[in-house]
Specification:
Layout (H helix, E strand, L loop, with lengths): L5 H18 L4 H8 L7 H33 L4
Helix pairs in contact: 1-3, 2-3
Length: about 80
């Protein structure tokens, strides 16, 4: 983000934070349902639950990463 405009970075940070707030719990309900054995089906249900867990972790990691990248850029001293 070389020579990024601080105002635009703050706007971007706000948008990323809003997306994070909006989608952070996207997989929470399905994960809870899987943990409560709402779906049965042997190995396919367990595989789906494992995929859901991985996707939830990946979503959280990418949201944190996006926020951190912009925050770090905002902390960088101006040239």
């Amino acid at each position: 983000m070389k020579d990024a405009d601080p105002f635009m970075l703050r706007l971007l940070l706000g948008r990323i934070q809003a997306l994070s707030d909006e989608h952070w719990h996207l997989f929470t309900s399905p994960r809870r349902d899987m943990a409560d054995h709402a779906w049965v089906g042997g190995t396919s249900a367990r595989a789906f639950a494992a995929d859901l867990e991985r996707n939830d972790e990946a979503l959280h990691a990418e949201l944190r990463r996006a926020l951190r990248l912009v925050e770090d850029e905002l902390r960088r001293p101006l040239p």
